[in-house]
Amino acid sequence: MKLNMTCKTCEFGSNESCCAENSKKSHQDDTECGDWGASLEYFSEIIDNAPWYIKEPYRRCHIGYDKFLELLRKDDQGIGIEINIYDAIEKVYEVTPWELAGVLGVSIGVLGYARTRETVDKRKKQFSSRLHIPESFFDRFLSTQLEALKQCKEEFYEFYGSETIKKFKQNGIDAMHLKFEEDAAHDKILNEQYREEHQYKYQHEEKNKMYHDLSDDYKSRDYVIAITVKEGEYYGNIFYEYNYGGYGLSISIMRNILDFVENLDCEEIDALNEEGLLNNNIGLKSDINGKEIHFELKNERGDILKKTIPEGELQKYIVAYEMIRCDGHGMKKERRRCSSCQNFKPIEGCAKGNCTARGDVVQRSRIICAFDYVPNKNECFNEDIS
Questions:
Q1: Out of 81, 83, 112, 278, which residue is the most buried by the measure of CB atoms under 10 Å away?
Q2: Quick one: pLDDT at residue 231?
Q3: Residue-level pLDDT at 213
Q4: Which pLDDT belongs to residue 381?
């Protein structure tokens, strides 16, 4: 694509004069200008019509606008533009990354390593043989070699045939689905383990009231809202968790919580339970009929009340929304000194001490603690007073 850097396509072009700052030039349609800048209309045109190997890196923010224009000029002059060989293969051979992995007979991880780091020698031979591509293409590939790559594609199809290549691609797609299933199953196990270990830690007790930290706007916080479900003397909780840089129950947060409750139908409950993400202590689950939900409430004596209700009636049992956890992500930098931490044991006669969290000797003047900072009791007391 040839750039038209004249007054006609310039953002400063206006009637018979140039609007560029401090410019005294007259309007000349057919002359390139050093002060040229693309008009909005021409900018859209060059973005739409630029070669894919220049346009895509720009749209992905891998190169800036000046570099984009520079590459367009080089391309117009016939100078080769360096392209990631795997991007070129996917474009010319018309395959997705997963399909390409299937064609090459490797995992997506192996392909990802080759794409982002380097293609090791044994892979060069393997990939070159399978795709009918010269090994040198994996060392450096230029836009001027795209026609040669298209010829390689023709040899590849002629050698294997469409049906075999279709099977190669399907192998990659099958591997993708299998990996997604394995990842989902692994995440579900981790989520279920976490919920099982923590499902009662949020249970509100009078002797363990939440400490609401308003002393520090440096950190974000992990909040937990207990949505209390109750009938008579029987009760339980659904827990809504979120991270927030502000304080308290804002209007937008409450709106999100109410939307969460409103959307808790059978389908949503099944989806959250499948991923192990529905945190509650009432055993909330949907019925196989897809219209009713089941849960269990307890009273102070531990007696259980089992409930089965239509999916749209859960709201009737909700009596309270209460913030029960507010966990900050560390103290302000100036407060996290070793001398105020329980893990620090000073060494007599010097400015150092032993840190039991790090297992190392550190300076007691250290300010930013990246490890488990635990304030001394007197520090906690002073903060409470302040």
A1: 83
A2: 94
A3: 63
A4: 41
Nearest to 108 by CA among 169, 167, 172: 172
Residue 38 falls inside a structural domain: no
Residue 184 lies in a domain: no
Q: Where are the beta strands (DSSP E) in 4-85?
A: 13-14, 17-18
Q: Apex CA 91: angle with CA 86 and CA 95, to 5°?
A: 85
Are 349 and 338 contacting, i.e. CB atoms less than 8 angstroms apart? Answer: no
Q: How many percent of the chain have pLDDT more than 70?
A: 77
The answer to whether 226 and 281 are in contact (CB under 8 A) is no
| pLDDT tens profile 97-124 | 999 999 999 998 899 999 988 899 989 9
Q: Pick the last residue of a domain from 151, 170, 189.
A: 170
Asked which of 313, 328, 343 is the last residue of a domain, the reply is: 328
Q: How many domains does the chain have?
A: 3
Distant-in-sequence contacts of 334-339, Cβ < 8 A, 24+ apart: 334/367, 335/375, 336/367, 336/368, 336/369, 336/373, 337/364, 337/365, 337/366, 337/367, 337/369, 338/362, 338/363, 338/364, 338/365, 338/366, 338/369, 339/364
What is the number of other CB atoms lying within 10 angstroms of the CB of residue 376? Answer: 14
- For residues 336 and 338, give the distance between their C-alpha atoms in angstroms, rounded to a whole number: 7
d(CA 139, CA 121): 10
pLDDT digits (tens, 9 = 90+) for 47-85: 888 999 999 988 888 888 889 888 988 998 999 999 999
172 C-beta neighbours (distance < 10 Å), count:
23
Task: Name which residue leads in pLDDT, 18 or 7.
Answer: 7
Q: Where do we find the tokens 């606008």?
A: 65
63 alpha carbon, distance to own chain's centre: 21
Q: Return all residues near 302 (Cβ < 8 A) that are at least 6 apart.
A: none
pLDDT of residue 186: 81
Residue 316 resides in a domain: yes
The domain containing residue 98 runs over which residues?
85-170
In the chain, what is the greatest distance between 2 CA atoms, to the nearest angstrom? 92
pLDDT at 29 over 60: no
